[in-house]
Amino acid sequence: MPQRPLKLVSQLMAILVLVVLTLAAWAAWLGWDQKRDVHPDGSVTGPYEAWQVIGLVLTLLAPVYWTASRRYTVGAALGVPVGLTVAAYYDWSDDSSGLFMVGVGMIMVGSLIVTGVATAVIASVKTRADSTRQRS
């Protein structure tokens, strides 16, 4: 069997697994907090706290590292942004102002950039470490 179709299937499976893991992580870290906090001065924040977003990012770093270090770079770079975009759209789509799409777009672009850079760094460090190990 040719190597090319197997590589494509592996990349698609990596994307699918990362999308599912990202949706689960969003639900665990952000899905339960839906209320905005109203402070005594009348200002409104939320619904998420900084620690929730940091927890989500750190949770997603592990599967991105695992995927990128096994040379499924396309899967690592696309799985998390797709999952975050779908989760944000689903979670925020009940916003009556319609501005939720701006936030969803920012999530999509920002996560694509950050995940792409992280994947490139992880893959290059892993490749360099593998080539150094082979020379020894």
UniProtKB/TrEMBL annotation:
Keywords: Membrane, Transmembrane, Transmembrane helix
Protein name: Integral membrane protein
Keyword Transmembrane helix in record: yes
Superkingdom, natural source: Bacteria
Transmembrane segments: 12-30, 50-67, 74-92, 98-125
